[in-house]
Amino acid sequence: VDPSVRALSPTTAILLSAGTLVAGFAVYDLIWRTLGPRAPVVATALSFALLFASAYGFTLLFSGRAAYIQTGVLIGTVMTGNVWMVILPSQRELIAATREGRDQDPSYSIKAKQRSIHNNYLTFPLLFIMVSNHFPSTYGHHLGWAILFAVMVGGAGVRHFMNVRYAGK
Q: Taking the alpha carbons of 55, 61, 64, 66 in that order, is the dihedral positive or negative?
């Protein structure tokens, strides 16, 4: 909490922090369960817009350092939610179908793969945020939110380059 940014009580700051994590994953999951299968490009754009809006909003509530950390925790929550709420349950269902001699429902594989790809692209932005505490010139800059956006897009871009390169394309 930084009173020069916003005067928040510790309780209010904690509630805002925890609330945005729960709401963040719920909204992300809803987007990808409803809009994602029909319009993945729109779901991707909306996901980026909401992530950037959240990161910017955190800079209006918390110190620059805390805003970066909160953004990282939000990304980590989404990644963890993807594993525990989509990828592992899908894997369990596919294994159960195989053991029981049933045909596997391909929708489980598709959902798990999609969320795994999301986690893949979120890895580098999250790693940068984790080490950003060692670089106050990023979070301490008056345009720290723009630096964070650029690094998140750049990190995902580097990951995409690596994915394409190692796929032999």
A: negative
